[in-house]
Write a structure and sequence with these properties.
EC number (chains A, B): 1.1.2.4
Pfam families (chains A, B): FAD-oxidase_C, FAD_binding_4
Family (chains A, B): Belongs to the FAD-binding oxidoreductase/transferase type 4 family.
GO molecular function (chains A, B): D-lactate dehydrogenase (cytochrome) activity; D-lactate dehydrogenase (NAD+) activity; FAD binding
Largest interface: A-B, 89 and 89 residues
CATH architecture of the largest domain in chain A: 3-Layer(aba) Sandwich
CATH class of the largest domain in chain A: Alpha Beta
Structural class of chain A: alpha+beta
Shape of chain A: globular
Radius of gyration of chain A: 22 Å
GO biological process, one term (chains A, B): lactate catabolic process
Oligomer: homodimer
CATH topology of the largest domain in chain A: Vanillyl-alcohol Oxidase, Chain A, domain 3
Chain lengths: 465, 465
């Protein structure tokens, strides 16, 4: 039953609204949505200001028309899929850098600004925004805020929410609010800012964000380490973190991930578990590198090579392209329910071992890579979607890995968000009472379930959320 | 109209409940509550477990009896004052360190554990919890979570909420929830953890907290710098932060604050604006100190002295005792509406100048000190509470400083919380719509306004909150 979206014509200019099939198709899912799960919105709109966002939401909310915010579409969990149709609100035209205040290490941006664009805007001041994901050059700040994204440098610098100082957002009924402060710290009232961050557009649409920035380090060194076994590599990484070693990036690629990267990116990675490293410091970077090398030595590292100059750039590009490389590796096989579970670092080697063992039991490739220093595993079970048995095995393995991560005190999603894909784990991870409290907040801020319905909350619980 | 609290006898053991005058008196306010503002609770109870907290809240909520959590009573804004009587719930008997996991840099504690006790428990592992306030040795972790406290090392390490991984909390109706994750990062559902942190016991009572810890730095150096004028000192501090200098602590004491410290602590501070410094590093600490010294030189520093060994300990103790020293300095004068406004660092010199100028205009001492690197000013207008004119001038100056801080993009409270003292600034700081959204969350999670009523929200708005 399509929603009547003709009200958009009264709210926005003609070129800001489309009911056309092409536009509806291109907003029917995100990067991670399988063909069969796509849902076309009834209309797409492109607000160009906070006032536009407010007007559309107020009108849609009055008419019981769902609105699902959409940005670059680089999400993995169906976060931006318009599950109940209605309006897909595309924020990519709100892409202005509004103000840079280098004297306060701050920048104000609209949500459609790409992560790379933001960093370009502050580079001349010797500043950068550290927590951005691998997809920063094609993903928007708004999307990163929506999922509380993080990335390769999170191990040293934290997640997106750690760097958001202030947000302007529009609630479901069109009310514009401002949360947080431009002060570095505040204890003033409820921290609504950090509820909005990571709420995946279900509580409000962010229309402006103020970020704190970091000074670029005076010393940066990259390198890689090669291990004989995956277990050695995972254990060495855990030991490095437990020693308090100050790494800016510590990424694991298992053996099959190095093959997949080579096949796609034309690199020549060793056919062995490999750790990518980056160190940031203002002083004494060599001492930190040596501390890491010693720990890796104790865990049987075979090669520990620090790069000179830009040698690592090609490898980082290959790492960044891994998500696409997975699709191209062994067609028609593709990842079944990929994930980004995260566990306390002491549990990390066991979790990696568990995922790999499940793969061996089912004779399926389960490439594991990711932001290892955070205890974050990106696992992907490669299956032929046309082979029901493989597909089922892929789902089973994925479920088992998430369940094990939760048992270990970890989380079903370290950075991609819940979207549609991880809803079924919410009760197991948080408990009924906690999910009820989340639901209460959703209902009080968005009583009509206007904003991005069908996400985060377990599917069967309440058809309206 | 007193509340009938006899239900407590059915809920807890005899030695966990008191209706006695002494106990009620000792829970009638906090450190910052003037005599005339104190409110005695009808009863005091001491839960010893999560189950106790849950049972008391469920019973009180059923009976419309307010419950105000109480810890060490070291708050400054009346945060723990039982504004509508009822039960003062004293958490100090829940003071167990539950688990230390050095392999994950984590500790689980009950809310009544003192900050100093926590740090003692992890010191043997070479770890510490960095964001604690000056009062850490006499304040509880639960109180620090309630206000999202911060302290002298926040400039490098962040606030309390940055270090809380997971919280167990009891909601107003007795429901026990768990929020956050033991994973270093998560994007799973709404961030209820960071709504509870800083909510001053108005949304739930925290019964267990998991903190992330930091490795103790290999190098620590303390020192002090003396300036001819306050403006030089404030400008030098701002310039140091703007240069990205890696200080672990950078505290300002204006001239009158050094006098007050000397009078109380018997120290021999220079009769001049003084900056206390601490540097933390694993390598190259001297280079960082030199970078700071150069900037201070450019801003006319008169003396820049780094301490050897424990020379700074006495000075830090004097800094820690400043709050008590203010009371003893010029009796019967005492601070009128003290504050902890915080602004972007570029505004910091102007804010300090503004506060001092107002003091000069009214011929009143306005000692200013605090966590300068965060843009945080602790201002105190010293007035004779029996002199209506001075008292009024003190309130005027305090109001003007807060209003100016908000105009500068800052916050009415950087670390003490809103409590009763800063409620009147909430609309000016956040706007009506944002305060409405906070109120909606309060009403949905605590519909009977059982938990710590009369705090955070503007007084006249809703007698029930």
């Amino acid at each position: 039953m399509p929603h009547d979206c003709t009200f958009l014509a009264d709210t926005l200019d003609e070129e800001q609204v489309s009911l056309g099939d092409d536009d509806r198709d291109s907003h029917a899912g995100d990067w991670g949505t399988p063909e069969e799960d796509r849902v076309r919105p009834d209309a797409v709109c492109w607000p160009e200001s906070t006032a536009d966002v407010s007007a559309v939401l107020a009108a849609a909310n009055d008419r019981d028309v769902p609105v699902t915010p959409y940005a670059a579409g680089t999400g993995i969990e169906g976060n931006a899929l318009p599950a109940r149709g209605g309006v897909s609100m595309d924020l990519t035209r709100m892409d202005r850098v509004l103000d840079v205040r280098p004297e306060d290490f701050q920048i104000d941006v609209e949500p459609g600004v790409l992560g790379g664009t933001l960093n370009d805007a502050v580079a001349e001041h010797g500043l950068f925004l550290p927590p951005l994901p691998q997809s920063a050059d094609i993903s928007t700040i708004g999307g990163m805020i929506a999922t509380d994204a993080s990335g390769a440098k999170t191990v040293k610098y934290g997640e997106v929410h750690d760097w958001v100082l202030e947000l302007e957002a529009v609630l479901a009924d069109g009310t514009v609010i401002e949360t947080g402060s431009k002060a570095k710290k505040t204890s003033s009232g409820y921290n609504l800012k950090d509820v909005l961050v990571g709420s995946e557009g279900t509580l409000g649409v962010v229309t402006r964000a103020t970020f704190e920035l970091e000074r670029q380090p005076e010393q940066i060194r990259g390198g890689r380490a090669v291990f004989a076994t995956l277990d050695d590599a995972a254990t060495a990484i855990a030991a490095t973190m437990q020693a308090g070693c100050d790494v800016a990036t510590i990424e694991l690629l298992d053996q099959v991930s190095t093959k997949i990267a080579d096949a796609y990116s034309g690199t020549d990675l060793p056919d062995a578990p490999t750790v990518f490293l980056e160190f940031h410091a203002n002083h004494g970077i060599d001492a930190e590198i040596e501390a890491c090398r010693e720990i890796f030595d104790e865990h049987g590292v075979e090669r520990f090579e620090m790069a000179a100059g830009t040698e690592m750039d090609e490898l980082w590009a290959a790492r960044r392209d891994l998500a696409n490389a997975l699709l191209a590796y062994d067609p028609p096989r593709r990842p079944a329910k990929p994930g980004d579970v995260t566990v306390p670092i002491s549990q990390y080697p066991d979790l990696v071992r568990y995922a790999k063992t499940l793969g061996e039991e089912h004779v399926l490739d389960v490439p594991c890579f990711g932001h290892a220093g955070d205890g974050n595993v990106h696992y992907n079970v490669l299956v032929d979607p046309n082979d029901p048995e493989e597909l089922e095995a892929g789902r089973e393995i994925s479920d088992a890995v998430v369940e094990r991560a939760i048992e270990m005190g970890g989380t079903s999603t370290g950075e991609h968000g819940v979207g549609r894909g991880k809803r079924s784990y919410m009760i197991a991870e948080h408990g009924e009472g906690t999910v009820d409290a989340m639901r209460a907040i959703k209902r009080t801020l968005d009583p009509n379930a206007t904003l991005n319905p069908g996400k985060i909350f377990p599917a069967a619980d309440d058809e309206r959320l």
